[in-house]
From TrEMBL:
Ranges annotated as spanning the membrane: 23-42
Membrane topology type: Single-pass membrane protein
Top-rank lineage group of the source organism: Bacteria
Coiled-coil ranges per UniProt: none
Function recorded in the entry: Controls the rotational direction of flagella during chemotaxis.
Keywords: Cell inner membrane, Cell membrane, Chemotaxis, Flagellar rotation, Membrane, Transmembrane, Transmembrane helix
The protein's name: Flagellar protein FliL
Main location: membrane
InterPro entries: FliL
Record family assignment: Belongs to the FliL family.
UniProt keyword Cell inner membrane present: yes
Family matches, as PANTHER family: FLAGELLAR PROTEIN FLIL
Length: 162
């Protein structure tokens, strides 16, 4: 009987060792998972702070309506140019400045467009040069009014010569 008692004592001890081994293994895996998740969140948080740039404000488009219609001289005849213009900025203050100074901007662009020649505008390079000059003219007016030239782009939305 003493032998039977010792077998009973050994069996629960062996079961306890098996259970404690599984519990230890589970605890180890859980600790590794938690450490890994914590490390990921720590590095993600610190890496994100260094790489975060403030979001860029949305693009704001302002069409300068109605389209510009000007005449200009060619060697043979009077020519006409009709140009639709839209400006783009990220600054609402620049949009308001352009709206408030629409007559000034329109005057500057009419003068610029009417000083062109048919030969210059027939080539793509001439149109691009005119686009750059028009953007510079609008930027100058906006800078005079707001203190900064917050006009990012100027687009020709239509361009008709005859």
């Amino acid at each position: 009987m003493a032998n039977a008692d010792s077998k009973e004592d050994v069996a629960p001890a062996a079961a306890t060792k098996k259970k404690s081994g599984k519990a230890m293994m589970f605890a180890g895996i859980a600790a590794l998972v938690l450490l890994g998740a914590g490390g990921y969140l720590y590095t993600r948080g610190h890496g994100a702070q260094a790489a975060v740039t403030p979001p860029k404000p949305p693009e704001l488009f302002l069409p300068l309506d109605p389209a510009f219609v000007v005449n200009f001289q060619d060697q043979d005849a009077t020519r006409y140019l009709q140009v639709g213009v839209t400006v783009m900025t990220h600054d609402p203050a620049a949009v308001q400045a352009m709206k408030d100074n629409d007559p000034v901007i329109r005057n500057a662009l009419v003068m610029l467009f009417s000083n062109q020649t048919y030969a210059d505008l027939s080539a793509t390079a001439g149109k691009k040069k005119l686009q750059t000059e028009a953007l510079d003219a609008v930027r100058k007016i906006v800078a005079d009014k707001t203190g900064k030239p917050d006009v990012d782009a100027l687009y020709f939305t239509s361009f008709v010569m005859q």
